[in-house]
Structures are given as structure tokens and as C-alpha cells.
Amino acid sequence: MSLPPVTPQRPLPGNFIQTPAPSRATASQPPVFGASGSAIQQNGGPVGPAPSQSQSQVNGVGGSSSATLASRAARTVNEMLAVDARYPDLDTYIIQGISSDYDISTSPSGAMAPFQRMKTYALPDKIFEQYNQAQVHTMMGLFAELHHAWLSIDNALYLWDYTAPDPQLIGFEEQPNSIMSVKLVKPREGVFIKEITHMIVVATTSDILLIGLATEKAASGVVTVRLYQTKMQASIKGIDATCVAGSDKTGRIFFAGRSSNDVYELTYQQEEKWFANRCGRVNHTSKGLTSVMPTITFGTRGPPEAVTQIIVDDTRNLVYTLSNQSTIRVFHMATSSTLNLVITRTLSNVISNVMHMVRNSELFRPGVGIVSISPISAREASRLNLMATTNTGCRIFLSATSGTYFSTDSTSAPSSMQVHHVKFPPSEHKSRAGSPKRTPSPNRIYGQNQLVDTNSRYLTGTQSSARFAPGFFFDLFNQGNNTMDNLFISAPDTGRIAGRSDTLQGAKFIETGMTLSISGIAQDIGLVTAEFSAASTPQGFGNELAVQFDKPTTEIAVLTHTGVHTIRRRRMVDIFATLLKQHKINDESLESAVNSFVRFYGRAETIATTLAVTCGQALDVSTDGARVGSLTDPEVVAAARKVFITQGGKAIVNENYALNRGESAVDTVRPSPRHEGMALYIGRLVRSVWKAPILQETATPTGGLTVNPTVPLEKLRDVQRDLTNLQEFLDQNKSFIEGLAGPEALGRVGSKQEEMALQGEHQALSSLVKLIADVIEGMAFVLVLFDNRVDEIILSLSDQARQAVRQLTFETLFTSTQGKELAKELVKAIVNRNIAAGSNVETVAEALRRKCGTFCSADDVVVFKAQEMLKKAEEAGKDTETGRRLLNESLRLFEKVAGSLRMEVLRQGIEAYVKMQFWAGSIELVLEVAKQVDRANRAGSWVKDGSPTDDPRKELYEQRKACYDLIHNIITEVDKATSAQNIPDTQLSIAQRRRSEAYSIIDNSSDELFQMNLYDWYLAQGWPDRLLEIKSPFVVSYLQHKSLEDVLHADLLWKYYTHYARYFEAATVQLQLAKSGFNLGLNARIEYLARAKANAGTKTGADSFRGLNGLSSSMGRSRQGRQEIIREINDLLELANLQEDLLSRLLRDRRLTKDKRPEIMKDLNGPIKTLDELYHQYVDQASYEDLALVIYQIGDYRNLPHVAATWESLIERDQFEQVQIYNEQAADSVQIAQPWERVGERIRTMGAKLQLSEVAFAIQVVLPLAAKYYVDQVLKGDGVLGHNRQARMPPQEWVPALFADLSVPFETMVVVLEGLFYGNEAPWNDRRNRGIVGAWIVYVVQRWFSDSLANGAAGELVFGGEENAMGVLQTLKNVEGANVLTPVTTEESRLLRARIEGALR
Asked: 764 vs 612, 743, 1331, CA distance in Å?
């Protein structure tokens, strides 16, 4: 079956089946302006979006593919309920202006007729007998909500149940005056006994009195009434009260008469008071004398203005009156006893407002009047307050405001009232078949290209009208027939209003209507059923579609002088079933009818309705109208099944969304309208229970507890039955339903896109099928729960579980893990209660499993058996053979269901095991549960990945951790029980054996995550020695992992290595500690390096080290690797020592300010810094030349000019500082070192420290600087201080002797000194200075010669060889030949040459 395409409101490229799209991406692009994709793409939806359109469905209902079916279905149902709740309020579609939109059913029995005539109940013969005896006055009316009618004849009042086949008359004849009016009202609370639910207000020509009325409703629905004499009456002589109204909320009663427009109140109370009788009257309109005297008019023409109708709006605390001059007055009930007139609107005021909206309407010409008014409650609309009906059939909607705003606050009185909207009668050519057509007047709605017929006289002659929520309009009109009235009925077209609510034009005030001819003249009209309400707020209030399966259908009774006519509102499902019934299953007209239905109400709504028809929800009235039954015609059901299968539409893949979000195409499939319709139907079935708690607790007067269901159990059974019907229908037809057909459906797809769409559809429909099963089973569980003593079951729960059960809703029970866990708690309580009562565990559990298997599975039965075994073991005793056998049997059963064992059950079992010293079994059970909880070890991978916060694996880790915490408790109890205090040896030996078994299971566990958790717990308890005693590879991996974050674990790791003679690994850890970023002081790092140096140099004596448990060590064992580690340790240790020296120097430096000291301490007393950091940040800035030279040495810095400059600065600083010290302390003190002594000591110290490094202690640099210092400072007196400077001068050979004492090679010194001697540079170009250098050469050669003679072996040549010796001799000759030596030195040189030459011979 195919439907013709519908023209959309605006072109959307690529969204039409017939429109070629440029590419796949463009073809699947979502609508730009949010128009209903399902309506357009599925070829036949309404112009606007379907009511259930939501963003989540546009982007794919599924969301994440990992979402569970239950949560997905719950989200879908919640979306459908939210869509229904967004049904537009009255103010949204009854906008300011005029309208006349009707779809009129020309036949009362037509398929689309909004109402259906039911049975007409004839007046009983006894009524006619009494009527024939009337003398003065008769009246008739309805107490429709009680299924009763009444008749007053003169002074007598008679009531009868008009639904009874032979009703009995209940008469009230105890007063003598003619009855003027009768009204049924609600009494004020606390005045009468609780049996009196209503009062009958009877107004006579003399008095107004109250009759108590008690009702009792039988299971069959028959209502019986009893009358009570209240003896409450007040005099109203001269008022002739013809209209009465009561407030259901406060019990106040208002009345007015035909002689004036005054409004009175009948006051009544339980007892008389000083200034008030039990019953009285108050005039709220006229004050003073006129309030107690009848109104007398003189010289006026025509009847006086009088009130003809009073109505009360309890939601706004307002009272409205209508006078015989069509004047509307508004009164405000500011307090419980006042009634203030706040607004008066005359007919001319009203018509003037109307004329601003429409001109030249024949329906508002002179002679028009208002015949009825009806209130619009604040629950239904926030703006609209009142509907007034004219005698021409126009409905005028008025809104009242407080100042400049629409007030919904019942405590504030409105100050003005305006006409908001005018609804004209339907056009005569639409309403009467065969009548001549009239041309609509040219009145156009502002802003819309739509004509409104403002001159239709179809309802001219309107006598009265009534409006019932959510907008049912009943208009009684008579156009000259004195024996029969006509009844025009209209109602909002809920489906079309909802379908247009999201369009650009918004919802329209569209109504469906029909006309009925009723036999007789109408006397009264009343609402039989409870007032309609789909929500407690204006939005969603009028959604009849949402409650069509949840609440009784609205029924209205109309009383004429021939009988009571009952009329029933037809639901959408009833209309559609009748539509199908009127067409044969193969009739071509069926397709056209269904297409029209889809076009009006959307494909999703159509699917939901067809499901309702197939599941037996449709109702129809029997031929005689006496009863309403299910429409189960096989042909109708078959036609609905065909529509469901063929009109379901197709799922769509939103490829653009998938590409933008990077998600799988399956996850972005927007399911078909079939899925949406199914979700709509399911949501509407469960709407009344979905958010409701499953139970409510009530305290009894004696302090006990009563637990009752919040939803009647019969209602639960009805919903369960409806869902079961739906489940059976889907199961029987799944092979024909795309998305439920199974894998064979994939063979029918033609492209990858179709395959993805089918997969997405399957996921969506499967989630709904799963939800249906869950709801059915959940309701079965609730029914089972209330079949037991639920109060005892609730009291047996823990406080936490009891509080959770109080808050448990049906939605949570059906769709969440939490709900199912709470249900299992309740199941356990049910089982325990039955066990306590002596019932067999297996019998009770099996019965529960059959009814609600999800909440009592086969695993639960095993758990109950295990618990029974455990209980028997406790009775047998912990040390008996039977007790141990039962313990092992219970352990076997628990392990069998370890994967589904709940934590509470596990905890209780463990507590019992520990109490009986079944420690090994308890630990084994906990480890098995932890293993089954996370068989894929995802928690372990989560820990290894750094434990990310927002990760689903974290929950698995928490579950396993909860298990491990139980083992911690077991270990604590084991250690406590095996302590030797006051325990006999025999018992202690048994306990020790059981302790050994327990620790054996712990140590041999292969659960790495458990071992990691256990080690954490050991350390938290302050038991690090336990780790050192455990021979397990898990200890090493644990400490290695933890050592990256915590220094204590790293400390424990190297201790563990050294404990098992793994020194090289210990050295590696210590090295890493020294290099780490932990909060360690510099001394601690140096200590780690020292220990690492010692451990790295320690050999185990074995070529191949065998590690723990026979495993070879994985650390590098090669000599090269060891040497690299040792080298790194030495380098780092050298750097650390330098840093320590620097820190010590800085802390002693007087230049350092106090505020800088902590900063430097924090920076240097921590991680070992690099040479660059030490040099540039501290050494260079502080001018610590000696440390700079050490840095040159460590860093192999070979920039000799830079090194020379540093040495020069160092010598100058020592000279300066020593002079300063000398001057400050004692001018002639011989105990203070001379500057030259300090410089010499510095050279000597640095030479030893730098080990004569060719980098930082290059002889060619240091020796010339020392020589220069000697000639420039010492010889000139700056390097010698005091009075007797000559005595304090150093010896002339001080410089070469200084370097010779440092073991500087003599050959090197000779070469350097020769360079000075021959360099001819200042200061060496001076004769005296050259002579000094020449003397130093002679001195060095002399010491070299003596040293070679003393240390040389026999036969070896002096100076290392003849060539060297000849060079030395030549050097001496050259020095002598320069004539710069003193005579003494020259003689020494000659003698030295002679000795050398002699040695060479």
C-alpha cells in the first residue's frame, strides 16, 4: 500500500523520495528547519511534525551502541511521555481573533463522529403519575455524576436512578412551599458526618434548605443514595431564588433570584454561635437595609435585571454571574467569607470588543444575547477564564487580567476582562446535508489567508450551552420546533492540534462536530464521568490521546421531558476501528481512508492506534446502546494488522550526523514511525504507573505500619493484560515486521545503507520488546509482593533498603539495575518470611521464579539453597564433621553462582564463614566472586591505564575492591583469632592450621589486582615487613609500579632486592631515586648514590642469577651494562657533591639576604641539577671561581682563555680577601696567613681536587698565572703584609716548588717556564723577572735530576733518555748565556750541568 506524497511547507533538498540528491551525504541530510522527517520521508504524514518528534530521535534513538536495551527503551518511553506532556495548552491554539474551523460529521453514526449516542433512559411511569398531580410548578434536572435525575412538583422533590430498569423514587415532601430551584453541591468539610458526600440545596418561595445526601457505589457501578434531614434552612422570602451554585473546594453556596441581580450566600455551620445561627444568608452585592428587604422598583419598564446563572471557578477563587440582560459580573472570593465584585461587563462592552475583531457579522446584530457562561479553570488555561455563548451560537472566550498581566494566582483579584477569541458556528453547508450552501462572509483572519464564515445561522435559536474540559461544547438550540430540541456537539481535534503545534503556523483551533436530534425539550445537561484532565497544568491538560487507554471515556447525560439521553466521547482508537469496520479488508476504499487518517494525524499516531485496535482497546456501543464492549471483529483486527505492517515506514541512516560525531552509522539510525508508534502506545499504557512509587507507608493510630499500593492492583492487572496482548501480537507477527523478522531480513536489503538502517531498526524495536517483557514481569512481581504480608516484609529490610524501597518507582523497577536489586531484596525477604513460617525454600523460590524470573532466577534458587546449608552448618557447630561438610557444600553452591552473587548476600555469607573459622573457604569464595565479576580483567587494564576518571571500567574495579575489602576483614579476624592469648593449645593448633590454609590461598592467588590491593593494605596497616617475606613476582611488579609515584614504595623495592641479594637491581632503583622528582633532600640523594655505588660494585659470584621462584632476573647483567650504571652513578655523585658544596657555600655567604636563603635552600636541597643550571644560576653569579673550575673539570670544558680568566679571578679574590682579613684582625699578627700563602694553598688544594686536570688545572695556564702573581704581587710587597716583610717573603723557588709538590711533571714545568723565559712578554721582558724564571728553570732541572737519580733503575738514563738529557743541558746553557742569572745561580747551573754530563758518561 502506498500513499501519495504530501507537499511540504518549504523545499528541503534531498528529503523527497522523488527528488534526486547530489550524493549520499546530501540525501541523508536532516531537515534544515526541523520539519518532521518522518512525515516527509515516509510519504504521507501531516504537514507539521509528528507529536513525538524529538531531537534524540532525529539523531538516532540509540545513542551509544553500548547502552543497554532497558535504558534505551526507558529513554524512548520517557521521550514519548514528554511529547504527550507538551501538548499545547488552550491559550496556544485559542489565540486572539476569530475562527470557525470544524470538521462536521454529517451522520451521527459516521466513522469520524466525535461523539456517540448511547442508551436513552425513558422517564419512569411513576414520574408521570406524580406530574399529573402538579398544581403550580414543576422542574426537572440531573445529578449526572450520581446517575440520578430529579423532579420537583410543587413542594415535593423526587430522585431516581435513571439507569435502573425499574427505579424507585426517593421523595422529599417535608416542606410546604413551592420549589423554585434544586442544586447538588459539595458540603464544607467537618460540618456533617463523613457519610454525607453531597448536599441538595432546595430553594423554595419562602426558604432555602439543605438536605444531606450519602452515596454508596457498588462493584457493578450502581450508585445508591440516602437522604439526611439536616434541619438547616434560612428564610429567603421575596427573593425567588432560581439559580444556585456551590464551591467544591470550600463548600460555600451562592444563590440569586429573579427579582434582582443581588448575589447571596447561604452560610451554614455545625453548631450555633453567639452571633451566628447554624444556617443563614448574606447579601454580598447590596449592603445595609436593602440586603434584607426585597427590591421594589417604581416606574421602570420591563422586568428588572436579575441573575440567571451562577458558576464558580475554584481554581481562581472567582464567581461569575450572568444576568437576564446579558451582563457578566465577576466576583472574587478573597477570604473564606467575603465575595467582592471586581468586574462588570455589559453586553454592549462585549460586543464592542468583538467588533474590533470582526465587522458586519449578522450574528452580533441587535437582538443578540448571552444565554450561558462556562468557566475555564486555571488548570486548563492561564489566560482564558470564561466562555460565553450567544443565542446565535457564537462562543466568546474572555480573559481576565490583573493590571497588565494574566494572573493565575487565586489570591489576586482580576481588574479587567476582554474578549480574547470568538468561535463562530459551523457553516450551514458543512452542517446540514442537502441544505443550500451559503457564501461565507469576507472576514479574513489577520495574518492568515483564511476566510471565516461569520454569518452562519446554523446555531441560531441557541437556548443554552455547556462546556466541559478539555473543550467539549454542547449547544442546545431550537429553531421553531416546540416539541424537539437539537444538540450540536463539538470537541477539539486533539490529534491535529498536537500535530500542528510545532509547525511555523502553530496549532489551530480545529474542532470536530456533529448534530443530534433529541426527542423532547432539553431540561438539563450534566457530566456523568469525572472531569477530564490529562495533566495538572495547562500544557498537556487537554491531550485526550495520552489518556485514551488510561482513563474512562467522558460521558454526558442530557435530560429532556421524555427521558435521559447519554452521549459518549469517542476516542481516537474507537474512531479508527469504526473506520476499518466500515471498509472491507480488501476494499480499495480502505487504503484511501487510511491515507486520509495518516495525513491528518501522522504515521506514528496511526501506528499507535492500529496497535491499540489489534490489542482489543477499541470500544463500541451495542445496538441497544445499553453497554459498551470491546470491538473484536476479526476483519477489523486483520485490517489493523495490515495497516501496522504496511504503513510502518522505514528507518533512516543519518550519515552526516555519523560523520560529524565520528559514530557508527548504526548508532545514528533514526528508527521508523513504526518504532515511534509502538513507543507511543507503550508509554500511554504505562503512563499512570511509570513515575509512581510502588508502595506507600501509613502509620496506624496504634503506632503500627500499613503498606498499600499507590496504584490499585486492578489497574496493574489491566496494564499487564494490555501489554501481554501487545507482546503476543508482536510475537505472532514478528516475521512480517521489518526490524523483528530476524537475520533472514538481511537477505532482502539492497545496499549497505539499508543494512545499517535495518540493524538500527532491529536494535530500537528489540529494546521496546524487551521493555514490554520487563514491565509485564515487574507488574507480576508487584502483584506477588502484595499477595504477601507486605508490611512484615518491609519491616524486615535494613533501614537503607527500606528507604530505597519507599522511593522505588515502577520505572526504576522496570528499567534499572537498582530497581532489580531492590526487587531481589524484597524477594529475599519474601523467601525468608516463608522459611520462618516453615515453608520449603525450593518450593517458594520456584514459585517466585515462574511468576517473575528476572527477580528470582535459577541462580537465586541456588543462593537460597546455599544459605539454607550455611544455616544448618551453624546449627551443627564449627568443629563437627557435619558442620565442615555443610560448609564446603554451601561454598560449592555459592561458587556455582559467584557471577551473580550480590554483595549483601556475599557479605552475610562471609560473616557466617568467619564466625565458624571457615577462613580458607571464605577467601576462596571472595576471590571467585571477584573473578566472575570481571572475567575479562577490565579492572586490571583500567589500573594499568592510569585509572582514568570517566571510564566504565572503574565500576568493575570498585566491585572487585569491595570483594578485596572483605578479605582484609577476614585477615584481621584470622590474626586476631590465632593470637596465643587465653587460647588452649588444642584450639590454637586447629586455628593455626586453618590460618595456614587461609594464607596459602592468599599467597597462591593468581589475581594480580588482588595482590596489588593486598600489598596496599599491608602498607596501610604498617606491615612493610610482610612484603619482604613474600616470595612472589607480584611483589616486584607491585613495588616497581608504585615506586613511580611514591618514595616509600621505591625504598621498599631496593630493600626487597637487597633482601634477596639482587644488588645490581637495588643499585638501579637507588640511582633512580637519586634522580627522581620525589621530595628528597640533597643529602638523601647523595646517600642513595653512595649505596648505589656500593651495590653496583657488589658481585653475586654467579654468572647467571636465578631470581625469585626460579625465574631469571630480567635486568641487564653484562659487564658493559654494569660499567655504564657505575659511570652514571659516579658522575651523578660528583655532581651532587658539587651541589652540596655550592649550597653550603651559599648558606655561609654574607651577601645572601635572609629572604633569599629559604628560596635557595628549597631550590638546591632537592633534585640534582645540571652543570649548566649550577653554573649560570649560582656559581657564575656568585663569583665562586673554585667551583667554576670544578664545573669545567666535570663538564670537560676546554676553553683555556676562559679557564685562565677564572684562575686569574680566583687568585685576585684570594689576594684581596686575605688582605682584607689581615687588615681587619691584626696588623702584625704572625698567626694570620700571608696572601701569598693563601694563594699557594688555593693552588695546592685545587690541584689535588682537580687531579691536575688538563682541562681545569692546565699547567700552561696555572703556572704562568702563579709566576705572574709572584713577580707582580709578592715581590712588589702586595702579597706580603706586616712590618718585617722581608722575613715574611716566600723563598724564590716558591712557585716551582708549589707545582713540584703537586707532582706536576718536571718536563712540563720546564717547557712552560721556557715559554715564559723566551716569550718576551710583560712582565717577563724585564731582566730581573727573566732572571727569576731562569733561576726557576735551574731549580726544576735540579729537582728533576735528583728525582731521576733517586727513582731510576740501574742502567736507565737520567731524564728518561739521552735525548731529554741533551735538551736539558742545552736549556741550562741558553739560560746561562742570557746573562740574566745572578752569579750564585749561574754557578749552580754550571755545577748542575757538570753533574748531568758526568751522569751521561
From this structure: 20, 15, 109
